[in-house]
Structure prediction request, 148 residues.
Amino acid sequence: MSRLVFFLFISFSLFFFSEGRAQHTEIDWAFLAKVEWGEKYFEEYDEVVWYPDFSEEVLAMDGKLVEIKGYIIPIDVEAGFYVLSANPFASCFFCGNAGPESVVELQFSEKLKRTYNTDDISTFRGKLKLNWDDLEHCNYILEGVTEK
Prediction:
């Protein structure tokens, strides 16, 4: 009988203490680079822009919990708008030395209690969202972001 009680206790403990702690899959920039780019005309902007064709592997991660490490680039500190980059600011997508697959928009789950500086290195967790058509946001978005 004591083995059964011990087994039940261990099972309950594992379930109870892991509940609410979702597993995040670690991804890297090489994974996010698994995308091909085509061109698409957006009438609203009267412009042709790069349009992502995400690989099957990346598509499978849409809506999944992930974590990724990179360089922080503040876009609008007052609004709490940051992106995470595969490269430091001087080499990031916005400066012309990389593609749009090298940045992830960070949408924090709570109002930030601190500010981040350009090129701080950190790891963030959140739900990966793939973006095809909203030109106001990055192609990769991390929703409900928390710092690891």
